[in-house]
Write a structure and sequence with these properties.
elongated, alpha/beta
């Protein structure tokens, strides 16, 4: 390898090592964040959400009573063998009938369906149907013999109601349609809960809501809290369409934001110290001043020209009389007036007055300022 090639490699490495290091640190931080948040869930009735429609309070209550709560948004977790475990299916997402069949075939010992769709009821709670009526929010007695409801007593219920077969137990309703239905299918218990809002952070502490939630959901020590997302290949009419922004978009957004940040750091890197070079020509100060004056004249910027002239004159006056740069205008006028025996009002108008309206007035101002500075330099 020649000397020039070796030098080129070294210079390239020096130019790239900082961006590469920064990029590596950002990628590492992103991986750490993804790992830290991989087990968290988001959205309505999420066990990790502290919003009013979240269920962080219920999750904490269950954990306090030795129930291991595992929040997930993955369909694979909901289709694992569930013998001796409880599966809670939250009121979100859209699943195929085939997805619901996979969940039904997982043989969970206890399944709690929160505001389930007709497809979910058909697959997991046969015979239980949506009534089409809803109950407005209010306190109700259980009206049934279900032990979990009897222990809880009065609860604040609202939401859709369900009709159930004779073998099922319906609670918190009008005797025909109920917001809580329990169905026994062999060794499996299916609980259908239409009053999801009663178990949220906003209402869990009201009436016997906490006791009802704990007695219904905390039946086993292992609870999988599943929030369905959008694994389905299609949506049945009447169930609503998929969301405008699917959940995976947030991961794409994070990736794009990371890419933009890396490019910004790369493009904004310093190329090295400033190198001084000889100018090809020397521009005299008088020529620069004249060129600037021509620009002011062409743009009719009399105000800026007058401000520049006054600033220059004030600088000379401050230096000649030892006046501080931030001195009040009245103090400057008083000092210069005492030195030159000029009228203070005229001096104030000359140094701090309004900008001239014509070129002739600007020339007059320039001449008067020049005379004033001459008097100061040569009293």
């Amino acid at each position: 390898m020649s000397t020039s090639e070796a030098r080129g490699v070294v210079e390239s490495w020096r130019a790239l090592r900082t961006p590469l290091l920064v990029t590596g640190l950002i990628v590492l931080a992103a991986i750490v964040v993804l790992i830290a948040t991989s087990s968290q869930t988001t959205g309505t009735f999420s066990p990790d959400s502290t919003k009013t429609d979240g269920a962080r309070a219920l999750s904490a209550l269950l954990k306090k009573h030795n129930v291991d709560v595992h929040g997930t948004e993955s369909l694979d977790d909901a289709t694992q063998p569930g013998d001796g475990k409880t599966l809670l299916v939250g009121p979100s997402g859209f699943l195929d009938p085939s997805d619901w069949q996979r969940i039904a075939q997982a043989e969970w010992s206890h399944v709690v369906l929160i505001r389930p769709s007709s497809q979910a009821l058909q697959a997991l709670a046969p015979g239980v149907q949506l009534s089409g009526d809803s109950i407005s929010s209010g306190s109700r007695q259980p009206g049934c013999s279900l032990p979990a409801a009897v222990k809880a007593g009065t609860a604040t219920v609202s939401g859709p109601t369900y009709s159930a077969p004779d073998a099922a137990t319906g609670c918190y309703g009008d005797g025909i349609y109920n917001t809580v239905v329990r169905l026994q299918l062999g060794d499996r218990i299916i609980d259908v809960v239409g009053t999801a809002q009663s178990f949220t952070n906003d209402q869990l502490a009201d009436d016997g809501n906490a006791a009802l939630a704990l007695n219904l959901i905390g039946t086993h020590k292992d609870l999988t809290w599943y929030l369905p997302q959008y694994q389905s290949h299609g949506v049945t009419p009447g169930q609503g369409g998929p969301p405008v922004i699917p959940p995976y978009v947030r991961y794409i957004g994070w990736a794009l934001a990371l890419t933009v940040l890396v490019v910004a750091i790369w493009r904004g890197r310093r190329l090295g110290p400033v190198v001084a070079e000889r100018l090809p020509v020397i521009v005299h100060a008088a020529e620069t001043t004249e060129g600037r004056a021509r620009l002011y004249r062409r743009s009719r910027a009399r105000d800026r020209a007058a401000a520049a002239l006054r600033e220059s004159a004030l600088g000379q006056l401050h230096k000649a009389h030892g006046i501080p740069r931030r001195a009040d205008p009245s103090a400057v006028v008083a000092t210069v007036s005492a030195r030159t025996n000029r009228d203070p009002a005229m001096l104030y108008e000359l140094l701090y007055g309004l900008p001239p309206l014509t070129d002739a007035a600007l020339m007059s101002l320039s001449q008067e300022l020049d005379v004033l500075t001459q008097e100061v330099r040569h009293p």
